[in-house]
Structure prediction request, 713 residues.
Amino acid sequence: MNHIDGLLQAMTLTEKLGQLNLVTANRAITGPTTTTDIDAAIRAGKVGGVFNLWGREAISATQRLALEESRLKIPLLFGLDVLHGHRTIFPVPLAEAGAFDPDLWMRTARVAALEAAEDGVNLTFAPMLDVSRDPRWGRIVEGPGEDPLTAAIFARAKIHGFQGDDLRSPAALAATAKHFCGGGAATAGRDYASADISPRQLRETYLPPFRAAVLAGCAAIMPAFNCIDGAPMTAHVALLRHYLREELGFDGVVLSDYTAIGELIEHGVAGDRTEAAALALNAGVDMDMVSGVFLEHLPEALSRGLVKEEFIDAAVRRVLALKGRLGLFDNPFRLAVSCASRTPDALELARECARRSIVLLANRQVLPIDKNLRRLAVIGPLADARMEMQGPWSAAGRPGTCVTILEGLKAALPDCDVVHAEGVGLGRDDDHGVAGACELARWADLTVLCLGEAAHMSGEAACRATPDLPGAQQQLAQAVIATGSPNALVLVSGRPLMIGDLAESAGAIVATWFPGVMAGHAIADVLTGAFNPSARLPITWPRLTGQIPIFYAQRSSGRPPDEANPFTSKYLDVAATPLFPFGHGLSYGRASLENLRLDRETYFTGEEISVSVDVICSEDYARRETVFFFIHDRVASVARPVMELKRWRQIDLAPGERMTISLTLEMEDLVFPGVELRPIAEPGVFDLFVGFSAASEALLRASFNLLARPGAA
Ligand code: GLC
Prediction:
């Protein structure tokens, strides 16, 4: 009999249910209720894992309670939301996604794992893989943007970074792919709201990142709070049991979100906590985060015949198996062998990642800042806002250690007179300082406007019906720009912000997102040209909230938008196009694409398609360029999106250099869920679009014909 079988045989029902109980130690508050007196529960064998606790001493003391004072001495899991760093806080995931660099995504997760493991954590509730196209949703900041392929590649990189090659390594974290699934499509961008997603959209958009996570060996999955078409994800038998467990073969742990099992009552699918516990267990949920219904109500569910003990045993086995994969039975304290915590390497990586995540959206000959600049005004509530730079979900990060934009610019321009004025408060409608700020702008040779959101305006429970510049910031910017001072607008936020007329009036626009601990230095590196900005938007940037959801992979319509024809799919009051499209981002200097070619014009199903394109760099700047490859299946049994991202390549170009990118598309890239939702590649004409973004007017195009292989079924 193996170790787990032995434990299972020895366990009382309470001890089995204890392994399914995940409680919070409340060092961070990430939900509406808390857990009390967990020590007694641990001693009684009623706890399988603790989260929102970190620090080697505190965790070791809690682990010792389980190992020395409980009957079966089963070690605990220790979870935390290590999303974008632990002590060294990297840019928020939405920012990092814009680097379009899986190696970077993996490296930051690796350092985060090292730092968190040193603090005793062995499970992270990350990566967050919610595809979203709705900037009203505060949690859009936590994910990799709007595109399912980007999210799938992001998933693989993050899981490898967190978990490494062997979970037994003391520096590895078990990763949790979350939130499965569809939370990013919540009604009106409101947290926890229902999502109505067709089975097709599920397969095309929301499931692919989680399929990638399972294939990458992700240790755990967390269902989303929302329901899909009336079925709460925490009790979704079709998606949790049939799709995840049976179709994908996921044998890891499904751990509920915070009090989500108890909330099945509010969802209106459970009459009481016993029914809620039964629904979740029968759907395939293994651990109950905070609600306590598994521990308290599964015994009654058993006696009422609502669940079978074999389902409880199966859940306990998966939890114990995860503890075994982490090596906790042999090495419950998992003393980290070494840690790159806050070493220069970690901080340098934080600076590199932030530089690589900052998007230059517009530049009307203002940037980069001239090295000989004499007088610089740094205006706005985000200029000296140390506590905001980390953004949300930075549990063990120390916001007081962040480098501000003002500090970064002063360090980068030692001979320049750099003067700061807040102008207006963050989120308050006070315009007390606008006049003074304008005076300063008139004095300066250049003004950097630092505007945007506070960290608490982004993340969970931070949805905004009007995702614009909070408070009087828009007025401040308009007044400063009206002075005629050359200016650059720096936007610090967790989402695309609606910036109205600033899109045209600002001299330059830079999206920094929440750049993390090295914010100021990275932003200065980009503004001064010490680093040539290379990030591209992982999400479409709307002109107005009314356009949401707006994203590149839309299906056509019978009347595609045509400004010249009123009877087409468009608005009276705003263009149908976004302010900035998916993939948009400028660099200093220019690049161009030429000579897109395929190896043939016709292919049989199953054959590879070889593609090449030339990229040319202007003479003035070296640059890192990202080239996107989209397809469009012109005619199919189901209307296909007008563009679908299938590849991207990133290359470094010297000034004046010309480079050829060559790659192959596989048949898999042409597959889509057919009428019956079964994967199929249908013969017909395909367009291939290649460009620096999804901006249709700038794409190179080629087409090819796919024929059914003779004799193929
Ligand atoms: C929160 C979040 C989830 C997080 C969990 C634990 O409610 O929805 O993403 O992992 O609680 O903090």
Q: What stands out?
A: The chain has a mean pLDDT of 96. DSSP finds 20 helices and 26 strands in the chain. The radius of gyration is 26 Å. The first helix runs from residue 3 to 10.
